[in-house]
Model the fold of this input.
Amino acid sequence: MSDVSNIVSPAEREALFRACAWFRALAPAHQALVLGAARAERVPDGACVARRNAPADFWLGVHTGLLKLAIYNESGRSCTFSGVPPGGWFGEGSVIKRELRKYDVVAIQPSLVMQVPAHTFHELLASSLPFSRFVIDQLNNRMGEFIASIQNHRLLDPDARVAQSLAQLFNPNLYPSTDLALPISQEELGYLTGLSRQRVNQALQSLADQGMLALAYNQIRVLDLERLRRHGLDQL
DNA sequence: GCATTAACCACCG
DNA sequence: CGGTGGTTAATGC
Done:
């Protein structure tokens, strides 16, 4: 993990924010507030975007690439809570509570990350109805995803867990701009699902055989998202 | 039985 | 060359 960063120019940064639905819903004055304070940077694969137990100074968004939210124990074992694909915004929980971040944020692909300062986030929350609405929807959607995650983990067989974990990365409310070709290694998918790489490989090949996915080097292409979403749910 | 770890090797970039 | 993927064998619950 390194902290090497690559700041994006103001003009390009503005374009990035105009691509976000929540930003377009803001009044012009609030948009200006964001553009005056926000940052955007390119980070390489493996880079640490934000650290666990550090102050949550930013609300974070993904424009391109892929991030993961994970914690590591002293022996180096990791637990990945969530993958965040393009279009995803996260970290509002710790920003709202003004607490230390609860997990490490690590790039698992070269990524373009957007950062809204906590101060700006609180200003928007206090003065913008559209922004408040967005944050409520955001928290609500993610709560649903986490409850589904626990269900999946406890009730579904490994093949179905892989299918559901993949399908969650295509939640249109949380991650509106995810491409169907997902650049992720099978090892990272193992961390995300809590399964071994070998078992994930077996599940992926089964799902590919059934026509739901196409596998390539460092990439999983979803061919039938609806079937992937349904897969395994009949077990419940 | 089934998943995990460890190991091996081929292949990709 | 390092990272990734496909496979097998040994181990454990």
Observations:
- The first helix of chain A runs from residue 10 to 18.
- Residues 185-187, 197-198, 201, 205, 215, 217-218 of chain A lie near DNA strand C (CB under 10 Å from a C1').
- DSSP finds ten helices and twelve strands in chain A.
